[in-house]
Specification:
By secondary structure, the protein is α+β, with helices and mostly antiparallel strands. The strands form four sheets. Strands 7, 8, 9, 10, 13, 14, 15, 16 and 17 form a nine-stranded mixed β-sheet that branches. A four-stranded antiparallel β-sheet has the order 3-2-5-6, with no helix packed on it. It has a two-stranded antiparallel sheet with strand order 1-4. β2 and β3 form a beta hairpin. α1 packs across α2.
Length: 241
């Protein structure tokens, strides 16, 4: 169990400031597991801490996680699955808090998926009014026309509602396949696939490469990492926090 400086634990309880906690320790007013504490002592959240004869109850602060996973194909974006399919959470080993996906990627899609246990952070990114951009690398078959590109960019009707304007560009083009970069600012169910279907394109591969200003980079499929403080700040700025 992690040990923390005693005065910091006492201050975390809200009883007093850290400086006042130091005075209490110096004056012999603090006991840890029945023993009088001294300056410099540490304790854990599970230890019995008594201050002036009263038990101190300290709630452990939960660490907030902000995680990027490179989701491989074949995994569903759920916490558990009644059909016993592989779930993205199976890939998140070694995390001692329950984290939830921010948005979704369907089973046959891959790429960046964010997870957190910070509810406000997740809601801000997913809220339709924020229009956080999502960037995809989309391989379509067999080819693409200028008219199809314009229609995708201008917006097409899916599920009875027109999509918002998108940024669409051709990355590579060869016989039988074209790779597109599509940036959207909404998050409707299977939106990219439905947009492509609406203009007569078959999606062979779909990979999300960025959410807002944060990019997937060289993260290997099936692996994850915590976002850097700079990435978290950039996402907060993007939602206007």
């Amino acid at each position: 169990m992690e040990k923390i400086r005693l005065q910091k634990l006492i201050a975390e309880s809200g009883m007093c400031s850290r400086r006042k906690a130091e005075e209490l320790v110096k004056n012999g007013k603090v006991k840890v597991n029945g023993h009088v504490a001294s300056i410099g002592d540490s304790a854990s959240y599970d230890d019995v801490i008594m201050v002036s004869g009263e038990r101190l109850y300290i709630e452990k602060k939960r660490k907030k996680y902000y995680i990027m996973l490179n989701k491989p194909r074949g995994y569903v974006t759920t916490m558990s699955d009644e059909l016993d399919r592989r779930c993205v959470t199976d890939l998140l080993t070694g995390i001692d808090e329950r984290v939830y996906p921010i948005g979704r990627l369907d089973r046959n899609s891959e790429g960046m998926l964010l997870f957190t246990n910070d509810g406000k952070f997740a809601n801000d990114i997913m809220h339709p009014s924020k229009h956080i951009s999502k960037t995809y690398r989309v391989t379509v078959r067999p080819s693409v026309t200028e008219d199809q590109l314009v229609r995708l960019a201008d917006g097409v009707v899916i599920d009875g509602k027109k999509t918002l304007p998108a940024n669409v560009s051709v990355l590579t083009e060869e016989e039988g396949r074209v790779v597109l970069r599509i940036v959207i600012r909404e998050g409707r169910n299977r939106q990219i696939r439905k947009m492509c279907e609406a203009v007569g394109l078959e999606v062979a591969r779909l990979r999300r490469t960025a959410i807002g200003p944060v990019k997937l980079g060289m993260l290997k499929p099936g692996t994850y990492r915590e976002l850097t403080p700079e990435e978290i700040k950039a996402l907060r700025n993007a939602v206007g926090e």
